[in-house]
Amino acid sequence: MTCDRPIRTRPMAPDEILDGLRDLHCRTGGATWAEAVAGIRFDSELTDLELSDVGFDPVLIEAYFETGPLSGEWWQRVWEFGTVGGLCMALAQFVEVTVIEPASVPGGPCLSAGAFQTVRALLERAGADVSDLRPSTPLLPYLWLWPGVFRWELPRMAPGRIPEVRFQNRRLTRRVLGAVMGLAGLVFSFWVAKHFPALGALLAGAFVKLFLLDLMRAPFAARARNWSVEFGDLYDFRDLVAALLAPRPAAPAAA
User: Fold this and answer.
1) Among 156, 174, 157, 155, which Cα is nearest to 165's?
2) 25 plus 77 within the same structural domain
3) Handedness of CA 79, 84, 89, 92 (dihedral sign)
4) Most distant pair of Cα atoms in the chain: their distance
5) Which of 38, 159, 179, 206 meets the CB 3.0–4.6 Å disulfide criterion with 214?
6) Residues 132, 80: one domain?
7) Which are the contacts of 66, defined by CB distance < 8 A and separation ≥ 6?
8) Are 147 and 236 contained in the same domain?
9) Is residue 34 located within the same domain as residue 140?
10) Pair 20, 51: CB distance under 8 Å
11) CB proximity list for 146: less than 8 A, separation 6 or greater
12) What is the pLDDT of residue 250?
């Protein structure tokens, strides 16, 4: 069974794009929503924002708003305009967002049901089999196979409310750190050997063993079964719908 609910979109307003840029800042820079609101405003100068920290990398902006690659000339003109407001107005000319509409259910229109059906439609468009998808279905399998829906499309619909999809491999991290420590220790042992040859040789042997063991184990740690995925505190699609329909994050009160 397929999802027959059409996916409707509408143009994004400049203030919605501003919230999207703030959300991108939180995802890439680890900032809180309050920090993003305080640091990214319409009158903020683009030249005052550090690209690597704020998330204003053109590639990330194009991915978040699904614009496709924009020309260098387009970005140059936006940069010449100089402000975040100019960037928001430029993106508002063609960026769209999916619309959540109430669905007809026994008892009357229901916005939660409409949000769930919209998510199903987005996943189906991405290639997922949604025939068995229910509100109580765990998110995990879909996060693994269609992360783009959860990483870009849904956050644009609810900036600041959808957590970041994070893939982690603690075993691989430990192996990489072990190899790095072994290599650093080997360099240190060479320095020690200049003054204390016996001690340097002993340290070199230990650190070579650490380096080689972790280096050889790294490919095994990188296997798929050792990876995990995190999506905030959301477990199933019922949680996801609640996040999508949650109130817009409030801006911090002015001091």
Assistant:
1) 155
2) yes
3) positive
4) 84
5) 179
6) no
7) 95, 152, 153, 156
8) yes
9) no
10) no
11) 123, 126, 127, 128
12) 66
For 219, the token pair is 């490919």
Closest CA to 26 of 64, 75, 81: 64
Question: Using one digit for the tens of pLDDT, what is the confidence trace for 209-248?
Answer: 666 676 666 566 555 454 567 888 899 999 999 999 998 7
| Residue 148 token pair | 């783009």
Distance, CA of 26 to CA of 29 (rounded, Å): 5
Query: In the structure encoding, which two tokens stand for residue 53, read together?
Result: 């920290």
Kind and range of the H or E run holding 228 = strand 228-230
- Residue 4 CA neighbour count, 13 Å, CB half: 1
Residue numbers of the domain that contains 193: 170-226
Six-digit token pair at 168?
């982690």
**Which two three-digit tokens encode residue 179?**
């190899």
The mean-pLDDT minimum among 71-85, 137-151, 166-180, 181-195 falls in 166-180
Residue 238 sits in the same domain as residue 152: yes
- Sole residue written with tokens 């993106």: 91
Q: What is the pTM of this model?
A: 0.73
Q: Which two tokens stand for residue 43?
A: 């009158």
For tokens 């402000």, name the residue: 83
Nearest to 120 by CA among 253, 244, 252: 244
Measured CA to CA, the distance from residue 53 to residue 208 in angstroms comes to 37
Q: What is the number of domains present in the chain?
A: 3
Grade residue 52 by pLDDT with cuts at 50, 70 and 90. very low
Beta strand pairing status for 228-230 and 9-11? unpaired
User: From CA 140, how far away is CA 122, in angstroms rounded?
Assistant: 16
First to last CA, the chain: 54
Q: What is the pLDDT of residue 114?
A: 94
